[in-house]
């Protein structure tokens, strides 16, 4: 039994940031349509785009030959069936659409001719959100198709990554919302506070779904093939148990869920003090993000290779 | 057109590691722990005093359905017309997807060049000149047998087709072309 060590922290950071940025783009577009908001979502979409770009830099830095990254588009023998080729195209299209969407709605880009065009914002926003979802989904499929690593080769893995990505993406929007809210005049802060409650509701629902998927995934896999069973064993009782049980399950999922639940159910008064009143979901968001990163790392680390003994 | 294959006779491997040394010298591989083209892991079976120690030499299995080629984004990994799985070092970006996808742990990142390195069956430097791969030529116990799987007179053909030599993890449907003669178990 050998655990793969080819992909470590860099790929974990990439899978995490790609998910957070893609999920953030989807969440900010949804908020823009649902609440007819542009003040928060123009900043949140920019943040999501930057997160994906930074994540992609980690992906490139992990290469043995980073300066050759362009070959995933331009190789003379390009393999269109490879998930890395497909993923690179999804990432590139996402970045182009995301950049068009952000520059159409964010007032820092007033100098561009298409700034303020609702048509551009509508079309690119919808497509950027769709490709944002594809980015989150692809991070799970990338490792999910590796059939010789049974703990990855399961439909639960892309679903788990999507749930985690959307939850961290909502956090990115929530942080932006609070940061914008603090700088707004007190009269406007009520809306930002209401967004904060709404985003906490979305995030806690996503965390609940993620916990359900994670529980099912681990429960099924511990009864699965020997490699998967030993991988779960390592997560629950081995050297990664602290990171998994405390970092991912308790700190990254259970405690943020409770914090957000308390926030949603609490008294919604003095909403102009948005910094203090939204402190709980903001802290919950920090925990969710750390948990999301650790989740990617432990899933990569327990990728146990197939067992083979002499015949 | 050939279909090169190897048979490992685990009964006569003594674990001397000469194949590893010959491979490293022949192919100028990076000499780092665990990062080389061929390995000779050992396995123990049974309990004292009835213990069997088996060496299972391992290298690239040159699969007929190689998962490393399927996942390679740039097409750097490919299977040539003689069934040998090779890497174009010029277009390899070192993404390591193939390392993750290979069920037989045959690949590693050559950190001197930043690209993937693996066993080539000494295709360019020996087989094309009609010689045996370096590991085969040097093996003291004749534990490595190299040949063409499409030549009915070859030793590998006879061993593989008769079922004397079997594949590792055939359930993965990779159709590996390295075969293993079953170990002798002390009953």
Summary keywords:
heterodimer; A: 311 residues; mainly alpha; Formate dehydrogenase/DMSO reductase fold; 74% helix; B: 187 residues; alpha+beta; Alpha-Beta Plaits; four-stranded mixed beta sheet; two-stranded antiparallel sheet; 10 strands; 17% helix
Explain what you see.
- The complex is a heterodimer of chains A (311) and B (187).
- Chain A has 11 helices and no strands.
- Chain A has 311 residues and is mostly helical.
- The relative contact order of chain A is 0.15.
- In chain B, strands 8-1-10-9 form a 4-stranded mixed sheet, with helices on one face.
- Chain B is globular.
- The chains are: A mainly alpha (311), B alpha+beta (187).
Describe, in short, the structure shown.
The complex is a heterodimer of chains A (311) and B (187). Chain A has 311 residues and is mostly helical.
What is the helix/strand order of chain B? EHEEHEEHEEHEHEE
Biggest sheet overview of chain A: none
Arithmetic mean pLDDT of chain B: 89
In oligomeric terms, what are we looking at? heterodimer
DSSP summary, beta strand count of chain A:
0
Helix content of chain A: over 70%
The CATH topology of chain A comes to Formate dehydrogenase/DMSO reductase fold
Q: Strand fraction band of chain A?
A: under 5%
Q: How many alpha or pi helices of chain A? A: 11
Rounded to an integer in angstroms, the radius of gyration calculated over CA atoms of chain B is 16 Å
N/C terminus separation of chain B: 43 Å
Count structural domains of chain B: 1
Strand order of the largest sheet of chain B: 8-1-10-9
Low-confidence stretches of chain A: none
Largest sheet of chain B: 4 strands, mixed
Rg for CA atoms of chain A: 20 Å
Global structural class of chain B: alpha+beta
The CATH topology of chain B is Alpha-Beta Plaits
């Amino acid at each position: 039994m050998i655990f793969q060590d080819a992909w470590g922290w860099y790929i974990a950071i990439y899978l995490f940031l790609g998910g957070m940025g893609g999920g953030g783009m989807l969440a900010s577009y949804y908020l823009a349509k649902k609440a007819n908001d542009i003040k928060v979502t123009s900043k949140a979409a920019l943040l999501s785009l930057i997160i994906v770009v930074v994540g992609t830099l980690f992906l490139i830095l992990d290469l043995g030959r980073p300066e050759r990254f362009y070959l995933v588009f331009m190789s003379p023998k390009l393999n269109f069936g490879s998930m890395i080729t497909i993923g690179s195209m999804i990432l590139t299209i996402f970045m182009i659409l995301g950049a068009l969407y952000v520059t159409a709605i964010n007032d820092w880009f007033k100098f561009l001719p298409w700034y303020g065009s609702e048509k551009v914002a509508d079309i690119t926003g919808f497509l950027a959100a769709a490709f944002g979802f594809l980015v989150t989904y692809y991070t799970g499929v990338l490792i999910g198709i590796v059939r010789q690593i049974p703990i990855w080769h399961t439909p639960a893995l892309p679903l788990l990554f999507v749930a985690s990505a959307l939850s961290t993406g909502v956090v990115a929007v929530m942080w932006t919302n609070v940061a914008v809210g603090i700088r707004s005049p007190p009269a406007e802060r009520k809306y930002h506070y209401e967004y904060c409650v709404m985003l906490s509701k979305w995030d806690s629902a996503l965390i609940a779904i993620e916990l359900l998927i994670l529980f099912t995934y681990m429960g099924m896999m511990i009864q699965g093939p020997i490699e998967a069973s030993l991988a779960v064993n390592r997560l629950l009782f081995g050297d990664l148990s602290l990171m998994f049980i405390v970092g991912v399950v308790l700190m990254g999922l259970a405690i943020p869920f409770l914090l957000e639940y308390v926030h949603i159910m609490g008294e919604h008064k003095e909403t102009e003090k948005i910094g203090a009143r939204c402190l709980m979901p903001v802290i919950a968001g920090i925990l969710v993000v750390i948990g999301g990163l650790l989740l990617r790392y432990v899933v990569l680390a327990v990728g146990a290779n197939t067992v083979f003994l002499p015949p | 057109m050939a279909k090169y294959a190897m048979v490992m006779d685990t009964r006569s491997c003594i674990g001397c590691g000469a194949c590893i040394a010959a491979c490293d010298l022949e192919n100028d591989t990076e000499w780092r722990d665990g990062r080389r083209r061929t390995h000779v892991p050992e396995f123990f079976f049974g309990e004292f005093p009835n213990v069997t120690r088996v060496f299972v030499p391992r290298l690239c299995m040159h699969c007929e359905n190689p998962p490393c080629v399927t996942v390679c984004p740039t097409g750097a990994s490919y299977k040539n017309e003689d069934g040998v799985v090779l890497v174009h070092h010029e277009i390899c970006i070192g993404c390591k997807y193939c390392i993750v996808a290979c069920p037989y742990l045959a690949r590693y990142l050559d950190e001197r060049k930043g690209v993937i390195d693996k066993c080539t069956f000494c295709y360019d430097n020996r087989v094309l000149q009609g010689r045996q791969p370096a590991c085969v030529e040097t093996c003291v116990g004749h534990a490595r047998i190299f040949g063409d799987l499409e030549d009915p007179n070859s030793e590998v053909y006879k061993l593989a087709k008769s079922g004397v030599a079997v594949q590792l993890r055939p359930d993965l449907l990779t159709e590996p072309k390295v075969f293993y003669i079953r170990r002798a178990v002390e009953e």
